[in-house]
Amino acid sequence: MVSDAGGEPEEGRETRPVAVLVGPPGSGKTTIGRLLAQRLGVGFLDTDLDVEADQGRPISDIFLEDGEPAFRMLERSAVARALTRQSGVIAVGGGAPLDETTRAALVDHVVVFLDVGIADASRRIGFDRSRPLLAVNPRATWVALMADRRPVYEGVATHHVDTAGRSPEEIVEEIVARLEDGGDA
Q: Is residue 92 within 8 Å of 47, Cβ to Cβ?
C-alpha cells in the first residue's frame, strides 16, 4: 500500500479513515488530500497511486493493455483495502464510486465530494492524454462524464465542497471546519 507516513495501522488491525475524497478528474483529490492529511496530522493514501504501485505501471497502461473492467476490479480492491487499513485521508479515483460494491463500502464513512466545474478542471489537469477516459475529445467527454457521475458523487457524500476558483488551502479549511462541526453537506 502506497501511503504518506502516519496513516497505516499495525498489520491486521482494522481502522477507519478520517475522510474519503471523491470527485471527477481535476477536482483536486490528491492535492487537497495531501494538504488535508498534513493539516490533520494523519497519513494520506491515493488509491490510484496504490493501484499503479501494485501493478508497476500507470493506469493509462492498465486501461490500454488490460481494459477498463480489469482496472475497475483493481480499483475496487484498492479502495476496500484502504477503507479498513488507512486511518488518515483517502483519495479515491474518479470512477471508484460508480462501483456498487464500493458505494456500499463508503456508506459508513465521512465522504467529501470535491465539486469542480470544467474551467477549473481544465486548468488543473490540462486534459492531457494520461487520463484514459479523457483521451478523445477531452472537454466533451469530461462534461458527459460529470453529468453521469454527479448524482453518484452526491449520493455517497457526507459533505459537498465547491472548489470553484478557490485555493487548495481555502478548500482544506472548509473541509476541516465541516469535519469539526460534524454536520452534513
A: yes
The CA-based angle 73-3-105, given to 5 degrees, is: 40
Cβ atoms of 146 and 12 closer than 8 Å: no
Pairing relationship of beta strands 19-22 and 159-162 according to DSSP bridges: unpaired
φ/ψ (deg, to 5) at 90: -120, 135
Q: Which residues contact 64 (CB under 8 A, 6 or more apart)?
A: 132
Statement: the pTM of the whole predicted model exceeds 0.85: no
pLDDT in tens, 150-162: 999 999 999 999 9
Sign (positive or negative) of CA dihedral 133, 137, 141, 142: positive
Query: Sorting pLDDT into bands at 50, 70 and 90, what band is 15?
Result: confident
Average pLDDT across the chain, whole number: 85
Q: From CA 45, how far away is CA 85, in angstroms rounded? A: 10
Q: Which residues of 152-181 are buried (b: 16+ CB within 10 A; e: fewer)?
A: bbeebbbbbbebeebeeeebbeebeebbee
Q: What are the residues facing 15 on neighbouring strands? A: none
**How far apart (Å, rounded) are the C-alpha atoms in residues 85 and 88?**
9
Q: Is the pLDDT of residue 1 over 50?
A: no
Q: Which of 81, 62, 82 is nearest to 72 (CA)?
A: 62
